[in-house]
Write the structure tokens for this entry.
Amino acid sequence: MSSRSVDAPGPPRRYPLQNWLALQRNPLRFLEGVARHGDVARFRLGPVFVYLVNDPDLIRSVLVTRADAYHKGRALERARRLLGQGLLTSEGALHLRQRRLMQPAFHRERIAGYGETMVRYAGRAAERWKAGETIDVHKEMVALTLAIVGKTLFDADVEEEADEIGKALTEALELFQRLLMVPYGEFLEKLPIPSTLRFRSARRRLDATIARLIAERRRNPRDRKDLLTLLLLAQDTEGDGGGMTDTQLRDEAMTIFLAGHETTANAMAWTWHLLSQNPEAEGRLHGELDRVLEGRAPGVADLPRLRYTEMVLSESMRLFPPAWILGRRAIVDHELGGYRIPAGSIVLLSQWITHRDARYFPDPLRFDPQRFTAEAQAARPKFSYFPFGGGPRVCIGEGFAWMEGVLVLATIARRWRFLPVDGIPVTPAAMITLRPKSGLPMRIEAR
């Protein structure tokens, strides 16, 4: 570090655990307050200094140019309790090896083959709904994306289990979040207290589904083209030549199964909410769908012409990014933006903060899909918008998620509108992902 580098500014701490308590009460509001202190702002959590970074060039440095100076942050280190050493949580040589083994399953041509299944499952969900009824749109999107990821990536039907799996996942995430936000929560995880026991029970339920999928595939290893088959057959031709152990297989399957549906379900739920608040954008979306599809279901070939549909999804993920924060742990002393970043400290990059910065998105709280025309995107710094991260650890399923989001949005929006329910506030719950707090009840109306 340069001898001229200095400590970053930040909010004062008047008493011990002040920042922990503020984070626990309202993480989004707390980080908004921290961001007011500058593009690199420092605060303390217990014995650790945390740096919130809100400058696109510095975000690029953390994720891309100086990615070797960091490991995953505290949240994903702790997420190993649920995900094991999967692609999200592994580091170094193991991460590179696992990514090499999994990359073929997310090749563009292979992903395109999943499109028909995505549309079919979205169409089946839409068939179940009735005009005038009120549904929990978030719960419906969780069930739909679970079914899609189960079929496309595991060639398995999990629709009948979707409700039970969704409940287990919600409980696991809520309890994991609670333990994460408590000082020294890693020690509480080892105690047989009610919250820990419920977390273990939820994890066992999720493990049971993954174990069943793997066991079924081993019993019936016929030629299939899904992710699970590829993982079973994968050989690391660029490395040690070996495949995955049973433990690695479980960890990667669990990671993809959970991460592959949770963020997309949240993105879709927030999109329906925002469209219900913005009838002009909704009308323009419907116009594009009517013009391009002419009354039929969408397909992968339609994606290049569904530009406004994609822009709606992009703007939704700007305002309510499903992955709302990324954390990195510095593994060496270094300098960032002229400030000292000591080894062991945590660096946070928050999509919630950066995506709502008026320097890059004027009138930032306004829903405006036109922000994502090609011209508007070219005029902004690249890392002013990073819903899927970036650099060597960019989300491996980004292409899958974009295709699924646009096809599901088009399939459902050509038939239905979702209207808000009076008197029920909609607020975000900043857990590991950004979910609607208490679900998202909405009334269905036929177009």
User: Anything to note?
Assistant: The longest strand covers residues 40-45. The chain has a mean pLDDT of 87.
